[in-house]
UniProtKB/TrEMBL annotation:
It is found in: Cytoplasm. One of its GO terms (molecular function) is phosphoenolpyruvate-protein phosphotransferase activity. Phosphoenolpyruvate binds at R296, R332, N456, D457, R467. Signal peptide: none annotated. Its EC number is 2.7.3.9. General (non sugar-specific) component of the phosphoenolpyruvate-dependent sugar phosphotransferase system (sugar PTS). This major carbohydrate active-transport system catalyzes the phosphorylation of incoming sugar substrates concomitantly with their translocation across the cell membrane. Enzyme I transfers the phosphoryl group from phosphoenolpyruvate (PEP) to the phosphoryl carrier protein (HPr). PANTHER family: PHOSPHOENOLPYRUVATE-PROTEIN PHOSPHOTRANSFERASE. It comes from Haloterrigena gelatinilytica. InterPro entries: PEP-util_enz_mobile_dom, PEP-utilizing_PTS_enzyme, PEP_util_C, PEP_util_CS, Phosphohistidine_dom_sf, PTS_EI, PTS_EI-like, PTS_EIN. Keywords: Cytoplasm, Kinase, Magnesium, Metal-binding, Phosphotransferase system, Sugar transport, Transferase, Transport. The active site is at H198, C504. This is Phosphoenolpyruvate-protein phosphotransferase. Residues 163-234 form the PEP-utilising enzyme mobile domain.
């Protein structure tokens, strides 16, 4: 790498967080200790022993991935943690296993066989376009994990970087990014990568300034160089000037709006935060959230030997409401099953857990007692604070499911009344996450106060592209016309049923998509707190007529490419 120069040097990439940070460059090479060297002669290799070593590495890899998934779910979010389910699938991929075993039979040690078996699948993904090309990083992550386990190589502890570090790397895998501590890392920049890469998604969730896809020019920055990472403009500046440092320290250009926002012609849109723990409330308030649009209550049930009791849950919900005394807190009832197992609950293995018993299906079945306890705590909390409590049921697919959930709420309220316990009926809503729910959204809206569109699940089900299957990742784009039409249908149904309609998921937090979502008629958008100021700013600049015209063009489009052309034309104006 070139020697330091005194003048600032700017390198352009793709900004993925609306944040800036200044710190000292630290280059990261995850493969520094993974040099395999030449393999021994084939006759010196014992195929049976090497296959046993490979199986042992796979077992340990699965255990590691499960631990990392749990940590990531707690620190970052369930949606982000789902990538580790995909990694477990790669560990068990028959094509890769067959490739390793064939290479071992040809006389290669297990580590060299793993390296060889992953070569073609990685190259195949790299030859694809868009998101599919970024899936090569997932394969590299799994390959490198197996190689470390087979060679006993040390793994760099990214969680222990010095405070004020700017991490530079060719690329960051999900396992790398999940380790990063926002209190220590001032930002990161990578040579490769795009806005939809896992590193980018994790950066937004963790609130870390980040620029990806800078290219080989990034290598001109030496270890220890002072670096500014501007995740909004998409620039990386070596040896920034005092003025540049001051601008970065002053925060982003966008105003943090503590008050609710409306379009330029006066249409109000609620902008809320997705949270999983009470620790995230402070950040949501600081970023100007109007309230909580998705409180993922499953985090209360994780990493413990028994479920939280009614009083513990009551205090958590009460504290969330207290953080937004004039706002709304939308709580999702326990959403487990599928990719969210809880150790002390019976969650039988299923061939396709995403199409199995999860969400409201479990709450009305094996988890009925937990559901009633949670509802008791929620109804008590609704009466304890001045904010508006809303409760939504996940994975609703039929009218009878919704009616059964509503009947359970009524029964719980009657029990509390008979016990003389203060309580209040919260707003009640259904999540639209399946094509079935979208098709019957009008009937659902007639029975509830609101609908909330979970775009992550809705996209995977509409497009038949499982969230844990990286080979179909390119189809998991909420701007696919089929998904947009499901959203359009849901909004129309909510209007007909006199219910408000919100959205939670990655789509809601993209400022570039705010005109489209406002045009579609969403009343509320909920997202990672870090993107709230940008989304509010985008909404404030909108004219409703122009947004509606964009939505009409987008829902009439035949391809995702055309949708993005319409979106980009609007945002560039």
């Amino acid at each position: 790498m070139a020697a330091n120069e005194s003048a600032p040097r700017s390198h352009a990439g793709t900004g993925v967080t609306p944040l800036s940070g200044v710190g000292s460059a630290v280059w990261y090479d995850p493969n520094a200790d993974l040099e395999l060297g030449e393999p021994p002669a084939a006759e010196a290799v014992d195929p049976d022993a090497e296959r046993e070593r490979f199986e042992d590495a796979r077992d340990r890899a699965r255990a590691e991935l499960e631990r990392e998934r749990e940590r990531t779910a707690e620190r970052v979010g369930e949606d982000e943690a789902a990538v580790f389910d995909a990694h477990k699938q790669f560990v068990d991929d028959p094509q890769i296993i067959d490739g390793v075993e064939a290479a071992v039979d040809d006389g290669l040690p297990a580590e060299h066989a793993v390296d060889a078996a992953f070569e073609d699948p990685i190259a195949q993904f790299e030859g694809m376009d868009g998101r599919m090309a970024e899936r090569a990083d997932d394969l590299r992550d799994v390959r490198d994990r197996l190689l470390r386990l087979l060679t006993d190589a040390d793994r760099v502890d990214l969680a222990s970087l010095s405070t004020g570090s700017i991490l530079l790397a060719e690329r960051l895998t999900p396992s790398d990014t999940a380790q990063l501590d926002p209190e220590r890392v001032a930002g990161f920049a990578t040579i490769e990568g795009g806005r939809t890469s896992h590193a980018a998604i994790f950066a937004r969730s963790l609130g870390i300034p980040a620029v990806v896809g800078v290219g080989d020019d990034l290598e001109s920055i030496d270890d220890g160089t002072d670096v500014l990472v501007d995740g909004e403009d998409g620039t990386v500046i070596a040896d920034p000037t005092p003025d540049q440092r001051e601008r970065a320290a002053g925060g982003r250009d966008v105003e943090i709006r503590e008050e609710p926002v409306a379009t330029a012609d006066g249409r109000a849109v609620e902008v809320a935060a997705n949270v999983g723990t009470l620790a995230e409330l402070e950040g949501a308030v600081a970023q100007g959230a109007d309230g909580i649009g998705l409180f993922r209550t499953e985090f209360l049930f994780l990493d413990r030997e028994a479920p939280p009791d009614e009083d513990e849950q009551f205090e958590v919900y009460r504290e969330a409401l207290a953080a937004f005394p004039e706002g709304r807190v939308v709580v999702r009832t326990l959403d487990v099953g599928g990719d969210k197992p809880i150790p002390y609950l019976e969650t039988p293995d299923a061939d396709n857990p995403f199409l199995g018993q999860r969400g409201i299906r479990r709450s009305l079945g094996p988890d009925a007692d937990l559901f009633e306890t949670q509802l008791r705590a929620l109804l008590r909390a609704a009466a304890a604070e001045s904010g508006t409590l809303s409760v939504m049921f996940p994975m609703v697919a039929t009218v009878p499911e919704l009616e059964a959930a509503l009947e359970t709420v009524a029964d719980v309220a009657a029990d509390l009344e008979s016990e003389g316990i203060e309580h209040e009926r919260p707003e009640l809503g259904a999540m639209i996450e399946t094509p079935g729910a979208a098709f019957i959204a009008e009937e659902l809206a007639e029975r509830v106060d609101f609908l909330s569109i979970g775009t992550n699940d809705l996209t995977q089900y509409v497009m038949a592209a499982a969230r844990e299957n990286e080979r179909v990742a390119d189809l998991r784009d909420p701007c696919e016309p089929a998904v947009l039409r499901a959203i359009e249908r849901t909004v129309a149904a909510a209007d007909a049923g006199d219910a408000w309609v919100g959205m939670c998921g990655e789509m809601a937090g993209d400022p570039d998509l705010a005109p489209l979502l406002v045009g579609l008629g969403l009343d509320e958008l909920s997202m990672s707190a870090v993107t709230i100021p940008e989304v509010k700013a985008a909404i404030a600049d909108l004219e409703t007529d122009a947004a509606e015209a964009l939505a009409n063009r987008a829902t009439d489009a035949a391809t995702r490419t055309t949708v993005y052309e319409h979106v980009n034309t609007t945002t560039d104006q």
